[in-house]
Write a structure and sequence with these properties.
With about 240 residues, this protein is an alpha/beta fold. It has a single domain, classed as Rossmann fold (3-Layer(aba) Sandwich), CATH 3.40.50. It has a six-stranded mixed β-sheet with strand order 6-7-8-3-9-10, with helices on both faces.
Length: about 240
């Protein structure tokens, strides 16, 4: 299966500090791939570098067979490479409906109406709160809105940064069910997640990052069975 997203020997530095030191990974059609690791391992930096939000000191990113070097972030989004950043970032002063409309603002295909219904099907709570100001939603509802807004841009690849962070277990379950449904609808997902148990359970392959390097990679089942991963990330 050919890779729709390929990262090769990616390096990123913040001043004298090397945040990424030659990270390589691939994401193919039909996959959910997860990146796990401790705080500061380089997971968020990897996603931000893929999107061109931080400059790479070395290495390459290929999306749909073409280099992303020099391509501005907004063009990548328009081409279907979409990031949901950490922190449940929504337009707090806009309504739920207006946030979703912002996700679709660059579209010219005329198919947005069906995608609104898709978002409402995934997250019925959003449909109930269409006219509510986004800043007054619960944390879980804001995360649903952030993902829903990303879906309105019609992603071909979805990058998710810590979608379950700080959420109640019942909401975490709903978020991961939605990720599975997005995947079943044909969108490959690259998932950064500190909840390693959930991430490995809901993904096909996994990479473990340690201090800016890939320390381990393989099927999610094999990574979950690794004694070091069990001890460090799974609480076993």
């Amino acid at each position: 299966m050919s890779a729709i997203l390929e990262v090769r020997d990616l390096s990123v530095s913040y001043g004298a500090i090397g945040a990424l030191k030659g990270v390589s990974l691939t994401l193919s059609e039909g996959e959910i791939v997860t990146l796990i690791g401790a705080n500061g391992a380089g997971k968020t930096t990897t996603l931000r570098a893929i999107m061109g939000l931080v400059p790479a000191a070395g290495g390459a990113v290929q999306y749909r067979g073409a280099s992303t070097r020099g391509v501005p972030t907004h063009r990548l989004v328009r081409d279907g490479l979409v990031l949901v950043p950490e922190g449940r970032i929504v337009f707090a002063n806009l309504s739920v409906r207006e946030n979703l409309e912002m996700g679709a603002y660059a579209r010219r295909d005329g198919g947005a109406a069906a995608d609104y219904e898709r978002v409402y099907s995934l997250f019925p709570r959003l449909k109930e709160r269409l006219n509510q100001t986004a800043g007054t939603l619960s944390g879980g509802e804001q995360q649903m809105l952030a993902i829903g807004r990303a879906l309105m841009s019609k992603p071909r690849v979805l990058l998710l940064d810590e979608p379950s962070l700080g959420l109640a277990p019942i909401v975490v379950h709903a978020i991961f069910e939605a990720i599975e449904e997005i995947h079943r609808a044909g969108v490959p997902v690259l998932l950064v997640e500190q909840n390693a148990n959930a991430a490995l359970r809901h993904s096909k392959r996994a990479y473990v990052l340690e201090t800016g390097r890939v320390a381990l990679e393989g099927t999610s089942a094999d990574v979950a069975a690794n004694p070091k991963v069990k001890e460090a990330y799974l609480g076993e």
